[in-house]
Amino acid sequence: MSTLFISDLHLSGERENITELFIHFLDQRASKADALYILGDLFEVWPGDDMIQPDYESSIIKMKQLADNGLPLYVMQGNRDFLMAEKFAEESGATLIEDPTIIDLYGTSTLLMHGDTLCTDDIDYQKFRTMVRDPRWKKEFFAKPNEERLAMTTKYRKISKDETAKKSMDIMDVNQQAVESVMSENEINQLIHGHTHRPAIHDFSVNGQSKKRIVLGDWFEHGSVLICNENGCQLEII
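and the corresponding structure tokens:
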């Protein structure tokens, strides 16, 4: 048995093949696992729990089936779907977990994050992130009509894509000092995150202590999963 980690699926009606791949993954792989963790950006947009998009229903139904059959299913909000809340958790059967969260992974204390807070060199994004996480912004957002909320999330999505195209890859990657800082603050030696779409396992040391940072892959061209058991972790393309 093993524990599985995925992130950055960005499910949407525009990419039905990825939705089908996700459902197949849940059926064939996740159903046999000890647990499944989804570390953010499961969905491309999320205007609110009261506006669950029809394109997401098949995925949510399948998640609920697995959860009802006993699969421990954990979901972390990402930068695309940070407005997921209690209704999503109820309908999917998932447990929403905080960013960051520490778990015991087969005897190894492991820090789980989406990863966007580690990209501290992307100053414009960090300012935007702070704005939309503000409770006052959320209150104003949810007070708007549904059509306007959906239009806003679509607009932010386009702006994000346009800005991403202009930025250097280094700016959009994690800052190593931020990584070392958060690992030190939480007194852990292993970190798993997504967001950057750069799947890899990074081994490094801080003050003579061995550290490991595992980056989950995105699901734009194919699926990507991290498989962990008592022998360690390995990244796999689906």
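(Above: one complete record from the training split.) The mean pLDDT is 95.
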